């Protein structure tokens, strides 16, 4: 785990009662982090930093990616939130332009 958040209780969580635990193959279940069960980086597409596969229909398949479940990646994920915010703002501006053009 990164040293900045290593001893913080909020940076690591496991739900061993979950019927899917662990939802990805792992070498060490004791280090499997469920905190980001749904990956917050999904929205970043190819720029997420993981190893997704994109299906023919465009669906992003993250089933072989363990990036959000790795305790060492907590800080990495936090740093990516600025990119997520920018993409959201860009998307909202795009939607407003589309609406304005149709009005």
How does the SSE layout of this entry go?
Elements: E1 53-54, E2 60-61, H1 74-102
Antiparallel strand pairs: 1-2
Task: Give a written overview of the molecule.
This protein is mainly α and 103 residues long. The chain has one domain. The protein has 1 helix and 2 strands; from the N terminus they run ββα. A two-stranded antiparallel ribbon has the order 1-2. The longest helix is centred in the last third of the chain and has 29 residues. The chain is elongated and about 55 Å long. It starts with 52 loop residues before the first strand and ends with a helix. The model has no long low-confidence stretch (mean pLDDT 83).
Task: State the main characteristics.
103 residues, two-stranded antiparallel ribbon, 1 helix, 28% helix, mainly alpha
Summarize the structure.
The protein is mainly α and 103 residues long. It has one helix and two strands.
Overall mean pLDDT stands at 83
Q: In which range does the helix fraction lie?
A: 25-40%
Q: Ends: how far apart?
A: 51 Å
Q: Let me know the largest β-sheet.
A: 2 strands, antiparallel
The helix/strand series, from N terminus to C terminus, equals: EEH
User: From the helix content, strand content and strand pairing, which structural class follows?
Assistant: mainly alpha
Tell me the number of structural domains: 1
Q: How many beta-strand runs?
A: 2
């Amino acid at each position: 785990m990164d040293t900045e958040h290593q001893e913080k209780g909020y940076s690591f969580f496991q739900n061993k009662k979950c019927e899917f635990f662990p939802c990805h193959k792992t070498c060490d279940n004791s280090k499997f982090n469920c905190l980001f069960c749904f990956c917050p980086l999904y929205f970043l597409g190819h720029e997420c930093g993981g190893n997704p596969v994109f299906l023919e229909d465009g669906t992003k398949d993250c089933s072989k990616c363990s990036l959000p479940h790795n305790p060492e990646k907590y800080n990495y994920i936090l740093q990516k939130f600025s990119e997520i915010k920018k993409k959201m703002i860009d998307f909202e501006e795009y939607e407003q332009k589309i609406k304005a053009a149709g009005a």
